[in-house]
Design a protein that fits this description.
The protein is of the alpha/beta class. It folds into two domains: 115 residues, Response regulator (Rossmann fold), CATH 3.40.50; 92 residues, Arc Repressor Mutant, subunit A. The chain is elongated and about 55 Å long.
């Protein structure tokens, strides 16, 4: 695993790097946001550990850059703030995880390892395709500026389809990603949800069915 540690407290950053290397991680260290952006443009990292209060570009700005660029680096945010609002804001920027200082080193390692197991690219908090805007943070969806009154399950299915960026998604994949383990794979729940979602999205149709293969979103 390759990790970028961006932390302006040099002693803390170097100590973290030394400890992570003991877990067979390849670690690069920077002490400001501008250097973090530079490194991210050159190297591929599995995870970036970002302090929110970096000098230069803030950790928030670096996180926005990562999620908007579509690179696959996961983000773990560090902060001295302890309020729930601060944690929610950090996650809303597109961060994958969040730790409040001071933290146990063992917990940091466990979280980094968990993040490295996620294979899909980090996604921005707002997805857009063919006039549909999906705001993951606010849990809202619109098409051409009109609000879509979606059920939680319809929202989840639309999220999966938009993440696929026009690629086909099988019914099995939809079940796995949008339903829990108690979903019955032999029911027509996916077909019914697709039908109601297609109706709510309106015309021209955006969800297309490829018989015996799956579904895709696109004009």
């Amino acid at each position: 695993m390759r990790v970028l540690v961006a932390e302006d407290e040099r002693m803390m950053a170097d100590t973290l790097a030394e400890g992570l290397r003991r877990f067979s991680m390849a670690v690069d260290v920077v002490y400001d946001g501008d250097s973090a952006v530079e490194r991210l443009g050159v190297n591929r990292y599995d995870v970036a550990v970002l302090d929110r209060d970096l000098p230069g570009r803030s950790g928030d700005d670096v996180c926005r850059m990562i999620t908007s660029s579509g690179i696959s680096t996961r983000v773990l945010m560090l902060t001295a703030a302890v309020g729930i609002r601060d944690r929610v804001e950090g996650l809303g920027l597109g961060a994958d995880d969040y730790l409040t200082k001071p933290f146990a080193f063992a917990e940091l390692v466990a979280r980094l390892q968990a993040l490295s197991r996620r294979s899909s690219p980090a996604l921005p908090p707002i997805l857009e395709r063919d006039g549909v805007v999906l705001d993951i943070t606010r849990h809202t969806a619109t098409r051409d500026g009109l609000i879509l009154a979606l059920s939680p399950k319809e929202f989840a299915v639309l999220h999966v389809l938009m993440r696929a960026e026009g690629r086909l998604v099988s019914a099995e994949d939809l079940l796995e990603q949008a339903w829990d383990e108690h979903a019955d794979p032999f029911t027509n729940t996916v077909r019914v949800t697709i039908m109601t979602l297609r109706r709510k999205l309106g015309d021209p149709p955006l969800i297309h069915t490829v018989p015996r293969v799956g579904y895709r979103l696109g004009s």
